[in-house]
Give the backbone structure.
Amino acid sequence: MRFTLGRRLASRAAAVALAIGAAVFSVQSPSMADDSYFTWCGSSNVSCQTGVQVSGPSGQDTCLTDPNRNTRVCINYAGDIVYVRDGSEDTHSAMALITASAGVADRWCRNPHGVGSWARCNFDWSETANKNVYGGVRINAGDARITYLWSFVNG
């Protein structure tokens, strides 16, 4: 009888451990889910990041606001850092896009933290490449509404 009871407890413990393991692995961590917010994020020529929520930009060189979506984008040139502020209550993530003439062509920084929040993405881009900065919002996995803001080269 002891053997049967011990076996039942062991079976229950295994079932509980399996259920906990399944729950842990079925919930995506932010880094697992955030890399694929656009269908093209899997391309080797595209880098997609979901920004870490911060209180605001630090050490930025230039900031401009997309007048259509009220998304503010700031760049720290020396650190290759992008800041994105969500300025609209539209249920869409605020986005920044940095395109480059060399290296990774498109770098997307997403701010899903809600209206009034700031997000920071840390990229590594070619210092001598021509870069264009855009701001806007993500509509869905295949569409973003973005506006050209400015260009820069640093080196």
